[in-house]
Amino acid sequence: MSTLIVAVASMLGFLVAYHTYGRWLARKLFALTDDAVMPSEELRDDVDYVPTRRSIVFGHHFTSIAGTGPIVGPALAVFWGWLPALLWVVFGSILIGGVHDLSALVISIRNKGQSIGQAAGRLVSPRAKILFLTVLAMALSVVLAIFGLVIAVIFALYPESVLSVWIAMPVAVMIGWWVYRRGGGLLMPSLIGLTLLYIAVYVGAYVMPLDLAGILPAESKYLNPVVVWTVILLAYAYVASVLPVWLLLQPRDYINSLQLFLALALIVVGVGVASMTGAADLTQSAPAIAKQIPADAPPILPFLFITIACGACSGFHCLVSSGTTSKQLEKAGDAQAVGYGGMLLEGMLAVIVILACCAGVGMGKVTRTVGEDGIASFSRQAATGQQAWRDYYRTGADGDPNAGWKKQDLSKKLAAFIDGGANFLTAVGLPLKLGVALMATLVACFAATTLDTATRLQRYVISELALSARAPVLANKYVATAIAVVVGLSIAVFAGDQPGKGGLILWPLFGATNQLLAGLALMVALFYLSRRSKPLAAILFPMIVMMLMPAWAITYDLYWNWIPSGSTVLILFGVVILGLQVWMAVEGVLLWRRCRGVLEPPPEMPAGRAAPLRENVAVAQN
């Protein structure tokens, strides 16, 4: 019953936090009211600024922030044991991650939908804006690389998922056209879209898996499935990021959110059934705190925090909150559900990942065998419990010669979640093969939503930096998007010893950069509250944690790993990002006393827009 107890206790903890701490943050600290004029209405252009009902915005926001961050991070972190990962996910989401996401969303809707980086220019200083935008650009480059790589690895490992992921794109376009151009309802398109998606899952698993391994040269260095899929995916991200949000981004994210909620419901039921029947036992499947860790593994402090990353707090979320979500929010009162509630739901997803990678994997190791017809079969081996868990997590137990952090790769950890989740699904009667296909599709679809959202956000950031540098040619949305895609692709392909194999190498950089970004966003929120003489404790503690832990991790990696290995990409990113963080922190300390109780200037209207509404000027002072 330990597995079920952990799942239920975590869920109840998140619900209580939402209705207590989350409500206090929204109503008392940020004083959100539904009568405020929103950027989506005031600046409506039906491309980026689109007033949207809460259910659709929540679907877009959640699938964009979730991606594979709360999957890959916890799947890696249980290497140190499931208990530290679980505690950080639950308390980190409630006290830090949710506060960060809500703060960024509120600051943006009260600054005409400006990104948190743009708002930093008035809340802190003009130089802080440039520093923040530079950190954003570097962080998003790593996000594009790592998420493109994750989807490519899933496609290469599980060709059964490819068809369903690509089918979701035209289905989303049809739903967007139906709802926004024909004024149709959501019920029938949603049902049709989900039905087509699951038909594609079945066809991909049993009839037509799309495996590039049989097409590409076997010994080619660059023409391997992971690299080719990465190129295709980033080319898709280019197209998706320049289309209007209503045509692809919103409806695709909405369909993916429905698919996720259905899959999560099935997994939760599977957890309950497997727990009550004794098939899944968390305490017997994996160590609560791992006692045998390879000598080359990073220390649990500070790397637990930056490895889990999005599962507890993610700087990427401030980009989604202030980059796309704030431009679609219909009412300010929706911010609590979308911002704070979205992070808590992501925390619950991370809890399920921990259970799948421990209790689910402990139900039996899953093996994949491809027949002569190209169709794969799946079976569960007799090895169960910690013996099965050690096949995925080589911790050095029993003198395992293959143990070692640096000998492992990203694919094994993704497989732990997919196989463990599929084991849970078998408890509710689904065949193992279909369960694996559903889980692989879930991960790939999630990562795809983050990929094109991140590309759109990177386009905004590059355009802002180009305008600040008086280079309007680079601010063009097609040019800026091309720069974003090329840089992300270069990092994905060339980081690591072999093309497309840099997943585990990039993840620590992603996690540290991601959470440093969260610390800087919380610093901007601290200035926002300080200028209004509001209580600071709710922001100050998360800010200190999110600036200290990632800086510690980057410093450790630079000294012990990146400089000794001579990795130019990692050294460059690490040194520059660490330097920018220190610079911005010093900037904040120097300006702090002068800003307390002094309101910043009201936000300017974007070029070509009418003068700001009086109501919005008043709202900006709240």
TrEMBL record:
Stretches assigned to coiled coil: none
Domain of life: Bacteria
Membrane topology: Multi-pass membrane protein
Domain CstA N-terminal: 4-550
A Pfam family recorded for this sequence: CstA
Alphabetically ordered keywords of this record: Cell membrane, Membrane, Transmembrane, Transmembrane helix
Chain ranges passing through the membrane: 85-109, 130-157, 163-180, 187-207, 227-249, 261-280, 300-320, 340-363, 434-454, 475-495, 507-529, 536-556, 562-586
GO biological-process terms attached to the record: cellular response to starvation
Gene Ontology CC, one term: plasma membrane
PANTHER family in the cross-refs: INNER MEMBRANE PEPTIDE TRANSPORTER (PTHR30252), PEPTIDE TRANSPORTER CSTA (PTHR30252:SF0)
Protein name: Carbon starvation protein A
Gene coding for it: cstA
